[in-house]
Amino acid sequence: MRLILLGPPGAGKGTQADVLAAHYGVPHVSTGDLFRYNLRQGTPLGLEAKGYMDRGILVPDDVTGRMVADRIDRDDAAPGFILDGYPRNLVQGEALEEMLRARQLHLDRAVAVDVPEDVLLARITGRRLCPSCGATYHTLYHAPRREGVCDRCGAELLQRPDDRAETVAVRLGVYRDETAPLLAFYRERDLLTTVSGLGSVEEVAARIREVLHD
Ligand code: ADP
Ligand code: ADP
Ligand code: ZN
Fold first, then answer.
1. What pLDDT digit, counting tens, does each position of 3-17 carry?
2. Which residues are catalytic?
3. Where are the alpha helices (DSSP H) in the chain?
4. Which architecture, in CATH terms, is 2-115+178-211?
5. Cα-Cα-Cα-Cα dihedral of 37, 9, 1, 184, to 10°?
6. What is the pLDDT of residue 55?
7. Sheet holding 2-6, edge to edge
8. In order along the chain (214 residues), what is the average pLDDT of each group of 10 residues?
9. What are the pocket residues of ligand 2 if the criterion is a CB atom closer than 6 Å to any ligand atom?
């Protein structure tokens, strides 16, 4: 199963990608998570990405593309992957096509998660991340058992610096201008399915399962 999840920031792509990855037994490949991991480890890639992420704009396509290629070439991605956060513009859409063609692989589907802006803002504002294991929470919709503490590993939860209001506005603009054109790109290739991202995590997951026919 090779799937991509499209949708604006806060739509629930990462949350649904986790569910799908467990269901299909393939890795959840999130470019945002990979950049944040590199940033925590202090790698050159992380340091390069930081300036862009802090401003809410896209990291350059060549850097991002190399990172994705390295990730999908790892053994665990041989049976497939759930790509979350890539591609994010038309150049990356073409690059992914080329990457797969060179490996004689193809994409099974692009699932676009559709959520109105007021709901996106509510989801982003309450999002909290575990810096240690990467788990995602929400202060209201998916609260940890102990406030501010990760259920899985006990680390203190943080708000992503780019989830503050000023940067969120930039990211929504980047989505509209650069990422949304990918909807037509995948529609032309007969790969696009749009689902509503409203409702509980389970409701959205059921909707996605339905369009994937299993
Ligand atoms: P979101 O919650 O908006 O989906 P992500 O965690 O996917 O956020 O991305 C956070 C930041 O990481 C982006 O604002 C951007 O700076 C960088 N990033 C993630 N994926 C990509 C990509 N495919 N191309 C360029 N930059 C990316
Ligand atoms: P994205 O990867 O698209 O940026 P996330 O999966 O990180 O989005 O979800 C954004 C926030 O909304 C997180 O705090 C997450 O816990 C929460 N969330 C995700 N799906 C739902 C849902 N169906 N209902 C309510 N909150 C949700
Ligand atoms: Zn944790």
1. 999 999 999 999 999
2. 13, 88, 127, 160, 171
3. 13-24, 31-41, 44-55, 61-72, 90-102, 117-125, 165-174, 181-188, 201-211
4. 3-Layer(aba) Sandwich (3.40)
5. -140
6. 97
7. 28-30, 81-84, 2-6, 109-114, 192-196
8. 98 97 97 96 97 97 98 98 98 98 97 97 97 93 97 97 95 98 98 98 96 84
9. 7, 9-15, 123, 126-127, 136-138, 141-142, 200-201, 204
Q: Which amino acid is at 33?
A: D
Cis peptide before 131 (omega within 30 of 0): no
- In the chain, where are the structural domains located? 2-115+178-211
Q: Report phi then psi at 68, rounded to 5.
A: -70, -45
Looking up tokens 């925590």, which residue turns up?
A: 40
**Beta carbon of 32 within 6 Å of any ligand 1 atom:** yes
pTM of the model: 0.96
What is the distance between the alpha carbons of residues 137 and 148, in angstroms, rounded to a whole number? 9
Taking the C-alpha atoms of residue 60 and residue 146, their distance in angstroms, rounded to an integer, is: 38
DSSP-derived secondary structure letter, 80: -
